[in-house]
């Protein structure tokens, strides 16, 4: 949903016209609050647009049990419509709720602290220096003060901004232009560069059309996946040098979505319209593709997202068929498969917590 929002509107509409399917557990009791253990994993499930069915799953690592919607259990209400991103920072969980135009802020037990109303539909987060940055799909990046939980400033960027990355004291923003895919304007093809000290856009860098995914490694490189036009312009993985702001297309590796773990990039490539799926790993230190199947013999059906949690030191791959609840596959920092569990509908972001 998050990355292919503009392309999947028709698919979502078709799905919503079908009888809504969901899996459930008769033993679930939304009034019974689970004991929060020392180690657990949160999953933001985006749900389907306009269905008010985003959820927050919690997996107890020790007990190997799942609380299907810990947010509703803790707060007696639903998250709302279309979760987009989640980040844990400064002992708080920030959740971007696109359909609500709200950033939900909770403590580490998913108890709501504040709902921050936004002047646009929030998409993605980045964190740095005691601030949380969030893209608004109407063309802005906002800065949230983590002490007051107030939006203290915003800056205009390109059309329909998606993910962000921070490198060399700069904030990079992928401007997709996704909502203009069928207009004369077409997709955007720029990355905005924001000076973090002044919080102003200092320039735009041209990339392949429809940039969406973005992360940085520990060597100051910023990686960008442009989704193309789902026709004659395919997905393209690019590398941006934050010292020079020069961009190059990467060779021997591609991606539909990806994550970085220090100096290693993990990419899942599943081009629309094909059955071929590749799980690339790439060493940024040696500029070398390590593998096109880093998951080995593990079979993952319909991969949807990939996240690496640097604090928790685990990698997660989620699945989705847009109808049934998806799974989360857990790998340790050596990328050895540990376990999997069922989360919710369209699990879009995963993060872990140790106490």
Could you walk me through the main structural features you see in this protein, from its secondary elements to its overall organization?
The chain is mostly beta strands. Helices cover 4% and strands 49% of the residues. It is built from 2 helices and 28 strands. The two termini are 32 Å apart.
Class computed from helices, strands and strand pairing: mainly beta
Low-confidence stretches: 1-31
Quaternary organisation:
single chain
- Coarse shape: globular
How is the main sheet built? 4 strands, antiparallel
Question: Using only CA atoms, what is the Rg?
Answer: 19 Å
Amount of beta strand: over 45%
C-alpha termini separation: 32 Å
Helicity range: under 10%
N-to-C SSE string, H for helix and E for strand: HEEEHEEEEEEEEEEEEEEEEEEEEEEEEE
Q: Helix count?
A: 2
Structure, briefly:
By secondary structure, this protein is mostly beta strands. The chain has helices at residues 9-17, 70-75, and strands at residues 39-45, 55-60, 65-67, 83-89, 92-97, 102-106, 112-117, 122-128, 131-136, 140-145, 150-156, 161-167, 170-175, 190-195, 200-206, 211-216, 221-226, 236-241, 246-249, 257-261, 264-269, 278-283, 288-291, 303-309, 314-319, 325-332, 337-345, 347-354.
């Amino acid at each position: 949903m998050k990355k292919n929002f503009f392309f999947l509107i028709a698919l979502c509409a078709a799905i919503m016209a079908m009888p809504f399917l969901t899996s459930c557990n008769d033993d679930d009791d939304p009034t019974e609050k689970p004991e929060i253990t020392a180690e657990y994993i949160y999953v933001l499930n985006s749900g389907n647009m306009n269905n008010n069915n985003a959820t927050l799953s919690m997996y107890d690592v020790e007990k190997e049990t799942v609380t299907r919607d810990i947010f509703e259990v803790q707060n007696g209400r639903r998250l709302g419509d279309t979760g987009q991103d989640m980040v844990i920072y400064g002992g708080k969980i920030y959740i971007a709720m696109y359909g609500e135009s709200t950033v939900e802020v909770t403590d580490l037990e998913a108890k709501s602290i504040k709902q921050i109303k936004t002047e646009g539909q929030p998409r993605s987060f980045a964190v740095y220096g005691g601030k949380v940055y969030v893209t608004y799909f109407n063309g802005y990046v906002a800065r949230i003060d983590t002490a007051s939980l107030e939006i203290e400033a915003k800056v205009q960027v390109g059309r329909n901004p998606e993910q962000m990355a921070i490198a060399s004291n700069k904030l990079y923003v992928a401007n997709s232009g996704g909502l203009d895919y069928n207009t004369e304007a077409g997709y955007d093809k720029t990355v905005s560069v924001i000076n973090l000290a002044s919080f102003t856009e200092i320039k735009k860098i041209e990339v392949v059309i429809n940039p969406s995914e973005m992360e940085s490694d520990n060597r100051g490189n910023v990686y960008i996946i442009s989704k193309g036009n789902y026709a004659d312009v395919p997905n393209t993985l690019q590398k941006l040098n934050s010292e020079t702001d020069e961009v190059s297309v990467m060779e021997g590796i591609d991606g539909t979505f990806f994550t970085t773990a220090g100096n290693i990039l993990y990419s899942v490539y599943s081009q629309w319209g094909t059955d071929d799926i590749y799980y690339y790993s790439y060493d940024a230190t040696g500029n070398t593709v390590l593998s096109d199947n880093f998951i080995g013999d593990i079979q993952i059906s319909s991969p949807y997202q990939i996240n690496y949690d640097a604090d928790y030191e685990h990698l997660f791959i989620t699945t989705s068929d847009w109808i049934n609840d998806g799974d989360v596959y857990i790998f340790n920092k050596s990328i050895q498969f540990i376990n999997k569990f069922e989360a919710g509908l369209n699990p879009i972001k995963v993060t872990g917590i140790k106490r």
